[in-house]
Amino acid sequence: MSKPLIAILFCFVFISSCKKDKDDPDPIVISQDDVLRMNEIQVIASHNSYRQMTTDTVYSFLLSVAALIPPEYDPVGLDYHHLTFNQQMNNYNVRGLEIDIYNDPVGGVFRTRLINSYVGLDTLSNIPELDEPGFKVLHIKDVDYNSHYNTFRQALVAVRNWSLTHPGHIPLFINVESKMDSPADDPTLSSLGFLPPPPYDPSAADAIDEEIKAVFGQELPEFLRRIC
């Protein structure tokens, strides 16, 4: 397991803690709270929790060329979407999230969507946040790019905002995947102009930690601030 993933998993299990808040308008006091262990908690969770449905024209095109696409990119598996984090947690009691992040230390790597050139859509995203340095949230580079949160920072802020308005909630379990795979891994797609994303290195791992601290720093216990 990579350092970024280890750090994220460890930190995120604890940052949104289950402490009872005196300002909680309707605290639920259960005697079992004092003895329940972390590994005894079961939660409802979503995968690719940030994801919105693939653009219709792109999805139709992918279906039409499905036989030529590497199996791991089978478009049938893209036929779903999620609500925002807030809606998932409020409406469906989701307490586990999964977020894919791509490294973009300089900025602009994800401003274009190459697949759009095959379906007559603008390849430019026109999303200012994608021009800035920082981790980007999406499913498949150049292909499956629709997300409720374009940046890792935006996703973290959404989690923090929900946590602050729901004091006393149980721990949120958040799995952050540092992604490096892309269509460019396939030789045929690479020859068509698909490019790999920037790799992860120790500086990227440190940058992930800094993103977490920038959003949650004041809420993190001191011992977690030291390891993140």
Protein architecture, described:
This protein is α/β, with parallel strands linked by helices. It is 30% helix and 9% strand. The protein is built from 7 helices and 4 strands. It has helices spanning 3-15, 56-64, 85-91, 152-165, 187-191, 202-216, 222-227, and strands at 44-45, 94-102, 136-137, 173-179. Strands 1, 2, 3 and 4 form a 4-stranded mixed β-sheet that branches. The two termini are 16 Å apart. The model is unreliable at 1-11 and 13-25 (pLDDT under 50).
List keywords for this structure.
4-stranded mixed beta sheet, globular, single chain, 228 residues
Count of helices?
A: 7
Compute the gyration radius: what is it? 19 Å
Poorly predicted ranges: 1-11, 13-25
The largest sheet, given as strand count, sense and whether it forms a barrel, is: 4 strands, mixed
**Count of distinct strands:** 4
Task: Report the portion of residues in β strands.
Answer: 5-15%
Helix residue percentage = 25-40%
Order of helices and strands: HEHHEEHEHHH
Mean pLDDT: 86
Shape: globular
Question: What class do helices, strands and sheet pairing give?
Answer: alpha/beta
Distance between the termini: 16 Å
